[in-house]
Amino acid sequence: MATMQFHMTPGSCSTGIHVLLETLELPFEVHVVHLPAGEHRRPGYLALNPKGTIPTLVLPDGQALTDWLSIAWWLGRTHPRAGLLPEEPAAQARVLATVNHVVGTVHGQGYTRIFTPEAHLLEGDEAGPSAAARRERLQARGRALVSEGFDLLDRQLAAHADQGGWVCGAFSIADAALFYTEFWAERIGLAMPAGLAAHLARMKARPVVHQVLREEGYR
Ligand SMILES: N[C@@H](CCC(=O)N[C@@H](CS)C(=O)NCC(=O)O)C(=O)O
């Protein structure tokens, strides 16, 4: 059977998927996509993932999964014994809702404003004397959105405090999603509620997370 192809960028949201792949001990080949060099916009990559986003996972049968949630869901569904996705439908829906909140809101609404404020500027606003101030306002809005999202997730963690400290009760794909946004907060010096800082420490204590961070160039 063909090996899965994992298209990723070290230190990006694909790190969360990397954690899941290693947790499941799956064989896969890594293809590093250099975002700053614009490799995600090259025709070869767009043929695989027309959205031009990271991560992409090409399955053994050649199908490409092209976003965080669908990749994580597929990994959880196809490896049920690992318990990364609860079987019970309502519990599974809660895990998906948490991933959606982390990836769609905390990352998609918040962090993108911090990392790439220019992508949120209206046409014509990118230049001129007010451009820098506009970018700063967008970044401040991004930090507020991350902070609001983190507060909700902190309360969710507190509600499951007696179950091991994972965000949906048992360890799940949602913890890998939350992990990469916490890791980003730590790297850029963004304040994190105590519950999330403890969750990040819990994640880093997992040998597989330690291994992934080393493989992606972090010490
Ligand atoms: N909705 C996508 C978004 C992922 C995403 O934004 N990835 C970033 C890297 S962390 C990316 O590809 N940025 C490049 C771009 O959007 O041009 C998903 O869930 O996978």
From TrEMBL:
<protein>
    <submittedName>
        <fullName>Glutathione S-transferase</fullName>
    </submittedName>
</protein>
<dbReference type="InterPro" id="IPR036282">
    <property type="entry name" value="Glutathione-S-Trfase_C_sf"/>
</dbReference>
<dbReference type="InterPro" id="IPR040079">
    <property type="entry name" value="Glutathione_S-Trfase"/>
</dbReference>
<dbReference type="InterPro" id="IPR036249">
    <property type="entry name" value="Thioredoxin-like_sf"/>
</dbReference>
<dbReference type="Pfam" id="PF13410">
    <property type="entry name" value="GST_C_2"/>
</dbReference>
<feature type="domain" description="GST N-terminal">
    <location>
        <begin position="1"/>
        <end position="83"/>
    </location>
</feature>
<keyword id="KW-0808">Transferase</keyword>
<dbReference type="GO" id="GO:0016740">
    <property type="term" value="F:transferase activity"/>
</dbReference>
<dbReference type="InterPro" id="IPR004045">
    <property type="entry name" value="Glutathione_S-Trfase_N"/>
</dbReference>
<dbReference type="Pfam" id="PF13409">
    <property type="entry name" value="GST_N_2"/>
</dbReference>
